[in-house]
């Protein structure tokens, strides 16, 4: 008859054993509940071996070690005579990732970015990863000046403990540069400097430039080069501030420059 010998770790919460147990020498280890994860992988992470003396402390270490792999949502250890029985419940595997609504960024670029944070076909689904997806995609779209982007993720349960992840993206309108203010410029007219900035350009349709962090960085380098090429070596761009209107469609940029001796 099996006896409870260890702890249950569920959603990161460590629960102390409800019943005391006597330490015993492990004669065999039996795994229960595996579906996709191989027994070899479990044994590789399990910090106990046949011949070890199982104690309450070691059982806690074992559950923690298996849970830390991210493969399992539930881990439980029990004793059956001198056999250590390891019960596990695997996390669902991602069968497919579908991205909808992305026009500004190709699927391949987004898929590569998602793989970097652990979301891809064949990966184990971790709910915290879905939060990272939102943050990462927002970062990518913000860098393009699409501050009104909305991202929603949902999962569809499939057979054999698998899920399909769907990411819906509403990109919103591009944020346009409404005004650029250069503070501290005393050597040239602001118009002279602004005319050299890509973010100050107006399209033939009369639209202001689309904001992006990359263009801002390039324009700052243009300003530096303009001053340095004209002998102003004691010059520095102290800071830049970028502010958005409440509708996230207009951008105001302030560039603070300083001359020093």
Secondary structure topology:
Blueprint: E1 2-10, E2 13-15, E3 24-25, E4 28-32, H1 39-45, E5 53-54, H2 56-68, E6 72-80, E7 83-90, E8 93-100, H3 107-116, H4 127-143, E9 150-158, E10 162-170, E11 176-183, H5 190-194, H6 213-229, E12 235-244, E13 250-259
Principal-axes geometry comes out as elongated
How many domains? The number is 3
Approximate strand percentage? 35-45%
How large is the count of helical segments? 6
What are the low-pLDDT stretches, counting only 5+ consecutive residues below 50? 1-20
Strand order of the largest sheet: 2-1-6-7-4
Examine the secondary-structure arrangement and name the CATH architecture of the largest domain: Roll
Query: Given this structure, which CATH class of the largest domain is correct?
Result: Alpha Beta
- How many extended strands? 13
Radius of gyration, rounded? 29 Å
Instruction: List the secondary-structure elements in sequence, H or E.
Output: EEEEHEHEEEHHEEEHHEE
Q: By helix and strand content, what is the structural category? A: alpha/beta
CATH superfamily of the largest domain: membrane protein fhac
Main sheet characteristics:
5 strands, mixed
**End-to-end span in angstroms?**
85 Å
Proportion of helical residues: 25-40%
